[in-house]
Amino acid sequence: MNKNITDIFFDLDHTLWDFDKNSALTFEKIFRVHNVEVDTSEFLKHYEPINLNYWKLFREEKIDKANLRYKRLYDTFEAINFSANRTLIDQLSEDYIAHLSSFNHLFDGTLDILDYLKPNYNLHIITNGFHEVQHNKLRNANINNYFKTVTNSEMVGVKKPNPKIFDHALNLAKTTKEQSLMIGDNYEADILGALNFGMDAICFNYHDFPLERNIKKVDSLLELKNYL
What we know:
Pfam families: HAD_2. One of its GO terms (molecular function) is 5'-nucleotidase activity. This protein is an alpha/beta fold. The protein contains nine helices and six strands; from the N terminus they run βαααααβαβααβαββ. The model has no long low-confidence stretch (mean pLDDT 95).
């Protein structure tokens, strides 16, 4: 690892903030509120890959935020043969965003690794998530004070892996790509995005995605101590 690293940029969802666990709890809550009688585990089995696919389309500017929020639910209800009208889907979509940051499970080791890194590095966030939700997640999970800057895609108008978002984040942090490191779970957005921009990167590969041998990776956050 480059010994000149001064600034570390983290992805938030699926890297520090346990999106899948918090999302599942949110769906359980809003389904109860609206008396949606579906098996949540069956719903999530279909929703999670559908959601990931729509986020890929969103990163690639092939779909906007409103369609992402609506279609991921519409397609999932279709997949489980549950009849949901437009009004219900719109309400669930709004409530999902409203309640998502009320659950704040972090990945194991998040606080320990942030405490370990903070005395020696400037810590930052680069996220493709929505502005109004991401700041609530950081605040409600009590980790916002670890980070000097937060860059989200809505501020910049583009999403990772677009180099413009990395450039914006570095300018905001007043640092250089040679002194910076990206840590995230998404191979395309976080790792290739950073490497192609000229930043070093480490993949938090908790989902065991097949990676080229030259990609730095950890299976748990505390393994970052082996690099930093």
